[in-house]
Amino acid sequence: MSRLLLHGARLIDGSGAAPRAAQSVLIDGARIVAVDDDAAFDGIDDVRRVDLGGRTLLPGFIDCHAHLGAYDYELEARIATPASLTVMRTLPQLRQTLEAGVTTVREAGGLDAGYRLAHEQGLIASPRLLLSIVILAQTGGIWDIACGSGARLDLHGAMGQVVRYCGGVEAMRQLARELIAAGADLLNIHTTSSLHKDPERLPYAMFTPDEIAAVVDEAHRAGRRVMAHVDGGPGVGNAIRAGVDSVDHPYLLSDADIELLLEHGTWLVPTLSCNYGIVRIAERDPHAGIHESSLRAARQLIAVHTDGFRRALKAGVRYAMGSDSFGRFQGDNLFELQLMVEAGCTPMQAIVAGTGDAARCIGRADVGTVAAGQCADLLCVDGDPLGDIRLLQDRGRFAFVMQGGGFVVDRLQTAESACGTR
């Protein structure tokens, strides 16, 4: 018997519709086949019934920006770590993220296609993965190591180096093609300098508009999307005008940037929790290797980062949830929802940003909502997240996490735990 009936749910379906009580969800294998009032399923046979007892049922969450393979924040620690240890650290990070109720992740650089294949083949417990493989950055950009003598340390191919440096329109096209051939589901391009390197200075633009447009053109012709890693300054507008599909964690978001987001319909992925993550890791573990300069910059940027999102929210910009979580911050992904609410979202808006709207942002029509035909990715919690969004960070309240019809967390004892997708 492969059909499962979840009944007695208080349903928040991810569409933004008001919650509905006494709802049932019929699952056949990996898919939802019907959603209706409990009474509509009274006469149904050949199903295994699970009574949710009025618990809240939601779609599995989608994190639109995370670095699941980066255990350490600072580059020197990542590249000094043996490849085998990096893999062994990554596997529990994937599981922790999944058990936190995040069933799909748009991975922003650091994992190759092997992780996605391992998940699809049922070898590992992991969120569904959409991979960028690396971040495309300009020479001299983020984490490029250069000396005063002019010498550069070439770390291309080093485990833990999540950036590929490039430049020139044709070279950008070629690299985009290589990444797509290597299995990239999307491309990630860094179009501004880093505020963490120099928080007192307005970021300057990286890559020319033509270089960015070449990457966007190659990706879109191949049916891939493009996310732009931006900190602020003119590189934000360059990315939007070039046609990227989302701009991610702009710490400095100008009114002109907001107008461009509205004009082009570009998604904003604010990642409000990223600077909090750096601070929290340093506070939890003084030996985590966070540079004092990185910690100081993170603390400086929290307020201005939140203000930019607050203004974008009031203007009506499209937005989706992303945590920018990395190794020691994995599993805290839904802290982002709390920060979105504190910035002005309603709890329902924050939930939709992490479910239905997140699915639209990443271009996946089969996840993000509880509806017939969708993947059976679900989170069941004790309590009302519309009354207190913070309870979604309390895994002790999770009755179950389901991915592809299989229970990956099951505190109702309804099924044997399963890993992987179906």
Automatic annotation (TrEMBL):
<dbReference type="InterPro" id="IPR057744">
    <property type="entry name" value="OTAase-like"/>
</dbReference>
<dbReference type="InterPro" id="IPR032466">
    <property type="entry name" value="Metal_Hydrolase"/>
</dbReference>
<dbReference type="Pfam" id="PF01979">
    <property type="entry name" value="Amidohydro_1"/>
</dbReference>
<dbReference type="InterPro" id="IPR006680">
    <property type="entry name" value="Amidohydro-rel"/>
</dbReference>
<feature type="domain" description="Amidohydrolase-related">
    <location>
        <begin position="56"/>
        <end position="405"/>
    </location>
</feature>
<dbReference type="GO" id="GO:0016810">
    <property type="term" value="F:hydrolase activity, acting on carbon-nitrogen (but not peptide) bonds"/>
</dbReference>
<protein>
    <submittedName>
        <fullName>Amidohydrolase family protein</fullName>
    </submittedName>
</protein>
<dbReference type="InterPro" id="IPR051781">
    <property type="entry name" value="Metallo-dep_Hydrolase"/>
</dbReference>
<dbReference type="InterPro" id="IPR011059">
    <property type="entry name" value="Metal-dep_hydrolase_composite"/>
</dbReference>
